[in-house]
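seq as requested:
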Amino acid sequence: MHPLKQYLRDIEESLQDFAERVGASRQTLYRIIGGGQVPKPPLARRIVEATGGVVSLETLYNGSGQDSAEVVGLHRPGHAPLLEMERIRLAVAVTVNHLMPQTVEPPPAEAIAIAAEAVVNTYAALATVTTRQGPDRLGQALRPVLEEILREYGGQAPPSALDRGADLAAQIYYQSTSLAIRS
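struct tokens:
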């Protein structure tokens, strides 16, 4: 049984009511549950949020066994991720702390974790359309994420500072990777 169908059955919610909650048509949800359609990423996120994570992105996209439904950057068992999330989180946290004005409270840990996830997924998406990887590609993925988190939490950085911040975060990431290899 599809995880969304099981969820709706467990909480005794109608498909129509759930469709209204997530902003989708009943027919779209029928096709998703029946395996005839995979949800587009914005709808998939709304489904995950509306179910409190009971229905996950992984089950929506990979639980059906449809390889064509893979989410770029979603870690699947047996597939190595392109970047290590914890190291990216550390690099983003250090860089944001460096770029934020000292008079402004730093973003909460949850915001840093979400920003790190955005960087990992952006890097993975870029890797599907080009073979270029490494610090330059990571800097390219980091820059817009750093800009958004700074804007959201009261920090502003000029473009040159954002570029230097993205380079710094990439250096931190790759330096921590090389240190881990030596130990």
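Residues 159-182 form the longest helix (24 residues).
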